[in-house]
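Propose amino acids for all 299 sites.
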C-alpha cells in the first residue's frame, strides 16, 4: 500500500465581475471528476485544496476574509481569478467580501494575493482579457488580470484560460500539465493561452470545413452549409471545442447548428463582431478565389 502523503497545493479562487459561468462550467468537470478535484488527488501525489471559493465554501464574512488575509502573507498557493477587475473609482464596483465592516474589492485582493502566488490563472475571458464585463462602454473600467499585472508591475507567472465560459478540461488539464511537466515547460501563445487547448483554430477541425472550402454557406439557422454568413467566428478563434466537445463530450456549439461567437479571443466581444453578423474582411486562408466565386453562385 502506498502510504506516501500527497503534496497539498492551496488554491484560492476569487471572483470579479462575472456571470458565474466560469465556476458553473468548471465545477462540472468530468475528467477529472469534480470529486477528484475537490476531495482526492488531482494526479497521483498532488492534491488541490480549495481554501477559498465563493461558490462552494461554507465560510462567509470575517471567517472567509481571514483566509485571504492570512494566506496573502504566505507563499506557495495557486491563485485563480475569474471575472474582470473594475478599476474605476478604486474598484468599488466589485466587492470580494467584508471584514469588521470594511469592504475589500477584487482589485485590492488581486494586488494583495497575486504577488506571492506560485501561479495565477486568469479563468474565463473576463479575467483573461476583460471580456463581456469590459465591453463598450465599460463604465466600471473593467480589465483583465494581465493588464492589472502590467500596470502594477506584478511579475508572478500568469496563464490565461479564456472562454465564456471556459471548458473544465482547459482549467484542470492546465493545472495537471503544470504539475506533471513543470511551469517552465508549458507552451503558451502570445496571449498566454496554453497551446494544448488553444493551439489551433476552430476552423481547422470544424466538421463544416468542407462546406466552407466549397463555398456552400447556410443562409439561415438549420440550413446545410458553413455558418460563416450567420456570424460564425470559428475561422478566427483558437480553441479545441470541435474535438473536445462539451457537457461530457455530448456536443458543441457548431455541432448543434449554432455559430461560434469567438469567446476565447482577446477581442471578444466588441471586436469579433456581433454574434450573428458575418466577419468583415476575413482573410480566407485557402481556396480564397474559389470561395469568392462560388459564393456568388451559391448564396
Ligand atoms: Fe466572464 Fe466568468 Fe463569461 Fe461568465 O467568471 S468569461 S461572463 S462565462 O462567468 O467571467
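Proposal:
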Amino acid at each position: 500500500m502506498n502510504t506516501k502523503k500527497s503534496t497539498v497545493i492551496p488554491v484560492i479562487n476569487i471572483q470579479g465581475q462575472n456571470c458565474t459561468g466560469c465556476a458553473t462550467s468548471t465545477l462540472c468537470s468530468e475528467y477529472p471528476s469534480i470529486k477528484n478535484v475537490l476531495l482526492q488527488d488531482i494526479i497521483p501525489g498532488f492534491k488541490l485544496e480549495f481554501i477559498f471559493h465563493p461558490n462552494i465554501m461554507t465560510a462567509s464574512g470575517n471567517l472567509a476574509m481571514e483566509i485571504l488575509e492570512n494566506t496573502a502573507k504566505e507563499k506557495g498557493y495557486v491563485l485563480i481569478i475569474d471575472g474582470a477587475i473594475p478599476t474605476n473609482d478604486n474598484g468599488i464596483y466589485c466587492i470580494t467580501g467584508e471584514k469588521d465592516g470594511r469592504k475589500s474589492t477584487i482589485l485590492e485582493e488581486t494586488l494583495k494575493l497575486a504577488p506571492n502566488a506560485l501561479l495565477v490563472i486568469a479563468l474565463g475571458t473576463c479575467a483573461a482579457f476583460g471580456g463581456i464585463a469590459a465591453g463598450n462602454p465599460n463604465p466600471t473600467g473593467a480589465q483583465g488580470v494581465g493588464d492589472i499585472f502590467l500596470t502594477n508591475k506584478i511579475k508572478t507567472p500568469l496563464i490565461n484560460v479564456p472562454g465564456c465560459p471556459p471548458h473544465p478540461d482547459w482549467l484542470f488539464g492546465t493545472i495537471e500539465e503544470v504539475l506533471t511537466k513543470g511551469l517552465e515547460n508549458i507552451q503558451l501563445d502570445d496571449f498566454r493561452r496554453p497551446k494544448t487547448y488553444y493551439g489551433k483554430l476552430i476552423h481547422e477541425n470544424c466538421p463544416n470545413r468542407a462546406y466552407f472550402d466549397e463555398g456552400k454557406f447556410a443562409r439561415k439557422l438549420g440550413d446545410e452549409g458553413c455558418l460563416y454568413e450567420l456570424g460564425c467566428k470559428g475561422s478566427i478563434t483558437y480553441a479545441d471545442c470541435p474535438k473536445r466537445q462539451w457537457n461530457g463530450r455530448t456536443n458543441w456549439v457548431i455541432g448543434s447548428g449554432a455559430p461560434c461567437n469567438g469567446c476565447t479571443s482577446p477581442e471578444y466581444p466588441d471586436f469579433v463582431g456581433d454574434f450573428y453578423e458575418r466577419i468583415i474582411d476575413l482573410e480566407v486562408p485557402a481556396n480564397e478565389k474559389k470561395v469568392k466565386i462560388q459564393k456568388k453562385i451559391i448564396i
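Residues 15, 18-22, 82-83, 124-126, 131-132, 164-165 surround FSX (CB under 6 Å). Residues 31 and 111 are 32 Å apart (CA to CA).
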